[in-house]
Amino acid sequence: MWNETDPGAVRGHLEQAVADDVLFVDPLNVTRGHDEMEAMVLELRREQPTARFDLASDYDGHHGRYRYRWNMYVDDALTVEGFDVTTVNDDGLIERIDGFFGALAETG
Questions:
Q1: Which CATH number covers residue 53?
Q2: What is the tally of structural domains in the chain?
Q3: Assigned domain for 20 exists
């Protein structure tokens, strides 16, 4: 849905992949449900019409929780790196996405 350029098609991606009461949380947004998540995606598309999200890692997970890195490009320039931790319900639908921006700093 993040890369969908047809505003009318975003809802279909949501209905196919996420639970009705999905919770999305990142440093800039907190949304609950299809309506709020769709509005967030459409707002991003209005503000950054050339934005593109690419998977930047493999994914791994356990017990219905998965993590993966992603990159956001605008006009083919890398603008944001991030990672998500996603929870999937017993029906295989995403019920929660916790998003983070940037890489974790090294310790020591």
A1: 3.10.450.50
A2: 1
A3: yes
CA dist., res. 43 & res. 90, Å (int): 30
pLDDT band at 107 (very low <50, low <70, confident <90, very high): confident
Structure tokens at 54: 């690419």
Outline where the chain has alpha helix (H): 10-17, 33-47
Residue 40 located in a structural domain:
yes
CB–CB of 97/86 below 8 Å? yes
Output the pTM of the full model.
Answer: 0.92
Question: HEC string of 6-23?
Answer: CHHHHHHHHHHHEEEEEE
User: Is 108 part of any domain?
Assistant: no
For residue 85, give every residue at least 6 positions away whose Cβ sits within 8 Å of its Cβ, in sequence order, or none.
65, 66, 67, 97, 98, 100
Which structural domain, as residue segments, surrounds residue 47? 7-101
Looking at the domain assignment, is residue 106 inside a domain? no
